Amino acid sequence: MKIVIATGLYPPDVGGPALYAKGVHDALEERGYETPVVWFSALRKYPSGIRHVIFFFKLLSATQGAIPVVIRVGGDFVWESYIERTKDLVPLTMFYTSPTHLNLKEQFARRLVGWTLRHSFPAFNTGWLLDIWREPYKIDKKRARVVSNVIPARAAQTETHNRSVLMYGRQIALKNTDAFRKAFQQASVDLELERGIIPFAELMEQMRTCYAVAVPSISEVAPNTIIEAITHGKPFLLSKYSGFAEKYKDFGIIIDPLDEADMQRGIREIADPDVYKRLCERIETFKEVRTYKDVADEFLDIIQV
């Protein structure tokens, strides 16, 4: 059986999507499947528009004789585009139930998403996002599945050597970095906020010795940074509008990203030595591991429905 992986990024590209695509590819090949990869970033040298056409024909050629389409759903392009364009910081949980004015590009994207979902087997990385999309996109419950992200084994534990709180990621509106930085300053705690964008390997090195991690986004579906924090034994601050907020609430502090006072409350809590110790002790009990083999098996279950 041939299983084609279509992805925006693939090594040597860096980032979570590239690592995910490579991990699933390797796990499927180990099971004996023919697994060609078609990735968009390889066509960057061509002008916009032309590279999209080339990608379409490459994908069309590669998928001859392949299986039905499975779409991994890990975010919301329409919502992200709207937030970045308007700076209207509406959480994803409220986006499809509150009045919003989509431009033509966003309207087209929403229709395209709906068409794609109706003609594929969508695999959501959290039930939280599936619940949000279920009504507005009329998701067929017989076709949709939840395939959770990989959870690596616990990293080698080291003592915390500094007082840094890591807030690395894309500098876009939905990440809420300016509001959180202001709240951090107003909280007046003995901690140092680190922000910006750094390579993954450097992030992992910093996570070994940092104090905590912060993900104060307006919404985050399944932030890998939180998984990485847990596997490194580090507590975190996380937006309450997240697919991980309920699942991992015992290992960090959940905050309202739209409420400066609540963000300050969370920052002061995680700076409290007693609270911090209690969170670290809870994280020590976390033993869950999910491999790319697990993920590949679940994708194969979808294909064979």
Protein described:
The protein is α/β, with parallel strands linked by helices and 305 residues long. It folds into two domains: 5-150 and 291-303, Glycogen Phosphorylase B (Rossmann fold); 164-283, Rossmann fold (3-Layer(aba) Sandwich). 42% of the residues lie in helices and 12% in strands. It is built from twelve helices and ten strands. The strands form three sheets. Strands 7-6-8-9-10 form a five-stranded parallel sheet, with helices on both faces. Strands 3-4-5 form a three-stranded parallel sheet, sandwiched between helices. It has a two-stranded parallel ribbon with strand order 1-2. Strand 6 (164-168), helix 7 (177-187) and strand 7 form a beta-alpha-beta unit. Helix 1 (16-30) crosses helix 12, helix 3 packs antiparallel against helix 5 and helix 7 (177-187) packs across helix 10. The protein is globular. It starts with a strand and ends with a helix. The mean pLDDT is 92.
